[in-house]
Specification:
Rossmann fold; eight-stranded mixed β-sheet; alpha/beta
């Protein structure tokens, strides 16, 4: 097992509207493609297990969302319009229909891909992924008092909510690793003691803030908005993986997905925290169709 922040390929492309989109590739570059969407915040420099990816014959593709890493911001980002970026990336790489995996905050973007692109997304993976804030019962209760106040303001007054969310993200300065290091679930402590995991987390989080907090704030705003589609309309197989000791994303989110999406499988890793893919990537890849 080896987490990695050093991809085999690290490239950018120009989108139709002139923005830059950055992406990395890992594993067997001639293998079956799998797309991994990073968390919030996060970046393309994230491979949970480079050895397992190679051994599975997987070509892993990891894009930066707008405002993260080397991808230009997109004003007015939504879950659904981000799928336009994914289409351009898939066309650029000549991808056949393939699985899309979302880790943590990347999960709702993976679901948007499944909804808009049923012919291009063969299956979905949701790893430690929260559901839509406005749809999962009790989801707002899991927020900090400040976070909840900002999201409730957003629902009453969108412009004021955007300003509050942006100001909150601007209040942290640069060192995202230090911001998170003492806050990970206790179950992740052993993983974070591994040099490869710690180096990967430090690198990917540092890269997420290359442009400041822009990507993080845009993600927060997109995820606070109505998703714009019915998750119940997703017809692909959706693989749901959760950590049994994940203090960041409660079991209620997985239960919501299982109750709402027609075709799901649920796997819980007992004792796993929020970072369990570092330990279980080989199993997760083996289960994707």
């Amino acid at each position: 097992m080896k987490a990695s922040a050093t991809p085999k390929l690290d490239r950018t492309m120009e989108l139709a509207d002139g923005r830059t989109l950055a992406f990395s590739e890992w594993g067997d570059l001639g293998g079956r493609p799998v797309v991994l969407l990073h968390g919030t915040p996060g970046s393309r420099l994230e491979c949970p297990d480079a050895d397992a990816t190679e051994a599975a014959g997987v070509r892993l593709i990891t894009p930066d969302r707008p405002g993260y890493g080397r991808s230009d911001p997109r004003l007015g980002l939504t879950l659904l319009n981000w799928v336009d970026d994914y289409v351009e990336l898939a066309d650029h790489l000549g991808l056949p229909p393939c699985p899309v995996v979302g880790w943590s905050g990347g999960g709702v973007y993976a679901l948007a891909c499944a909804y808009r692109l049923p012919e291009r997304v063969s299956s979905i993976g949701l790893a430690a992924s929260p559901g839509p804030v406005l749809e999962v019962p009790g989801a707002l209760d899991e927020f900090s008092p400040e976070g909840r106040a900002n999201y409730e303001l957003f629902q009453r007054d969108r412009a004021a909510g955007i300003e509050a969310i942006t100001r909150r993200r601007e209040s942290f300065h640069g060192d995202v690793w230090r911001f998170f290091a003492g806050d990970f679930p206790e179950a992740d402590a052993q993983l974070l003691a591994r040099p490869d995991v710690q180096e990967t987390m430090q690198t990917l989080l540092s890269e997420s803030a290359r442009q400041g907090p822009t990507g993080w704030a845009e993600d927060d705003i997109a995820e606070a908005s109505p998703v714009g589609f019915s998750i119940a309309d997703i017809r692909q197989q959706v693989h749901i993986w959760i950590g049994g000791a994940d203090d960041w994303v409660s079991r209620s989110h997985a239960d919501y997905f299982v109750a709402t999406i027609p075709r799901t499988t649920l796997v819980s890793f007992p004792g796993g925290g929020h970072l369990f893919p570092f330990d279980h990537w080989a199993e997760m890849l083996a289960g994707l169709n």
